Amino acid sequence: MLKNWNPEKLKRDILDKLEENAKEAGQFVVDDARRRLLAQTELPKWRKYRAKMVAGGLTYAVERKGNEIVIRIGVKTSEKSKRHGFFIEMGSIRYPANPYLRPAVFQNAGMIIALLTGKK
């Protein structure tokens, strides 16, 4: 029989653990996106330089907003390298897309869920 049932403490503990797991998941996605970005071989020399610059700026942030945990992943450097990251990912009129961030998330969905739930 439960004598000291405290639902608010339980909720806080769950959110604390989820926030901790979210940091691990965020780092996993950043590492995979960086690996994908640096492994692109069809890029011209000048685009490889930009890819290295973007790879160096890939980062994640975990933010707790009330009862939700938000993970943001992207390029956190200058405004110029943010544009480079976008155009490498999405392509432009002159150059095809070379996605690195979306595949790092979508192709690893099972692993990300496992990390968030603490099963990995």
> How many discrete structural domains?
1
Radius of gyration: 18 Å
- Strand and helix order: HHEEHHH
Order of strands, widest sheet: 1-2
Written overview of the protein:
By secondary structure, the protein is an alpha+beta fold. It has one domain (about 20-115). About 60% of the residues lie in helices and about 15% in strands. The protein has helices at about 5-40, 45-55, 80-90, 100-105, 110-115, and strands at about 60-65, 70-75. It has a two-stranded antiparallel sheet with strand order 1-2. A hairpin with a 2-residue loop joins strand 1 and strand 2 (about 70-75). It starts with 6 loop residues before the first helix and ends with a helix.
